[in-house]
What does this fold into?
Amino acid sequence: MSKKPFYITTPIYYPSGNPHIGHCYTTVACDSIARFKRMQGYDVMFLTGTDEHGLKIEQKAAEKGVTPKEFVDEVVEKFKKLWKYMNISYDRYIRTTDSYHIETVQKIFKQLYDKGYIYKGEYSGKYCTPCESFWTDSQLDENGCCPECHRPVTFAKEEAYFFKMSPFAERIEKLLTETDYLRPKTRATELVNNFIKPGLEDLCVSRTTFKWGIPVTFDEGHVVYVWIDALSNYISALGFMNGEYDDFGKFWPADVHMVAKDIMRFHAIIWPAILMALDVPLPKHLAVHGWITFNGEKMSKSLGNVVDPFVLGERYGCDAIRYHILREMALGADSSFSNEIMINRINSDLANGLGNLVSRTVAMADKYFGGTLPAERETEPVDDDFKGVIINTFTEVEKYIDETKIKQALEEIFKAVDRANKYIDETEPWKLGKDESKKTRLATVLYNLLDAIRIISTLLSPFMPETMPKVWEQIGAEKADTEYSKLSVFGILPANVTVHKGEILFPRIDVDKEIEELNSIIKKNMEDAQSGLSAEEKGEAVQENIELSPEITIDDFAKVEIRVAKVTACEKVKKSKKLLCLQLDDGMGGRQVVSGIAQYYKPEDLIGRKVQLIANLKPAKLCGIESNGMICAGELADGSCKVIFVDDSIPVGAKIR
Ligand code: ME8
It folds into this structure.
């Protein structure tokens, strides 16, 4: 019987800078699902790749003095190296500069034009260069900036081709609200209200102001603009309209496209519209996760807050990193990355929970039976509850994987780990070991533990593919014992199984020491990232012709009292585009300050941060709201500003002098 196909994709990433933990999340998540499905017996196609065209790449290449292709070739190697390092088992890697992809995109564009879905017009509107997106005024954020990245937009006008979206509005609304396409479905409302209800606007699909793109075959000077190029990768990689591959019929429609929320709109609205226009069936599911954030901001290269997966992998092993990021991120929600949470998670779940379970069980089998258990058994009622919990884990995990809920799947498996450790406490094998007449009971307990570890480790193997084979080796499991069909059955290991004591799977980490070392690595990374930016990007726009105010004496200065305060709450001032209202812990009972920084900070960026407060400033009213003091910020040459944050080690109330 031929295997059932299963097709899963990550987004294709921009090779504009080094890959980081944020990219790792989607890729590791898809890899785990792909591995799980293979274990279940599916014929899996797992696709990832790189999205290599566009203005941003053209500009970066020019800055480095290389061609765009030379530029992307170098970065793509870094992505591939990382995926190898992280044990990513992709079946196909697509580059949008591959000739077969170019062929498909050109044919798709022509077909949509011939069908009347693409027409020529003129674009004038707001454009965000980093996101390569045009936005209408109604879509801009409250500060008139890009709704995705909140950076300033520019006015752009040019001849362009457009893709008609309106014919598909009704079908897309139904897709989002009445089917299981979008996960989590709770996000459908914002898409429908923000984009469909106001009337789907036609999408700009060609550009003439840059060259680094796929040429439109029938109109020289136009290159296909981002989304038709990028999204088509999911079908060109299967051979749709090209001769490179021949498995579109087998794998399409995709079972899961997984993306983060920043590109949800493109996958939830534009991609279905393109497919509808082409008369191609729609993918089955779009799983949308949040961002990995760092100090409240999306982790990204341009923010310079990249946590290097190679560094983390070297220190704790890839599997620990894979486990941590998968375990932290719930479908749909953001997950904040912190070294402390990561290390505590590795210590509690992997070192103490799983690692301890395996090492204790194997060590006892070794100590009391020389490694090989006798085949006789003596069961007790306590065994049944334990076995029941373990067997049930399999059903729950399978269900969660089908719902792309990886965090929950892992939580279930670790409930089984806890249950197994509790079984050790209940049965007290170390006491049984001291009593010769209890040896049969002891062998039974250890056998049950080993077989539970077989089930647990097999269920974990798609998530931690490097470590689990080591567990199988230690508990004496053969390959056949770890087949998927045997995960719902207890008693698969041979009755007289032989264990092999091995290395510690997850060594315990010294939390304080590690955090100190990681912090200094991150600080250096940030400095390096900053030094790679231009002065303007660094916020160092050269200040020329600085004119100082009249000189003051030290006594004048002493009149100003600057103290450290912590932002405990923050919200936008209604009716004002500029003001934020901050509640501060100033060490003196707290106070409220209104500050004109709403264009540069979201309230959540500030909460928990320490700032410099001008503490003895006469109260004033701003927009009718009382402000007791002022927080210090640096003014940049473009008139924007950045709050001067204070190191967390300086206590609230400390005087700044
Ligand atoms: O958007 N947290 O490419 P991209 C979680 N080329 N996920 C993150 C992340 C973070 N901090 N940063 C990146 C593009 N990602 C387009 C996609 S698809 C046809 C074209 C992940 O390099 C996440 O999956 O900006 C996000 O959707 C993807 O990287 C976008 O990466």
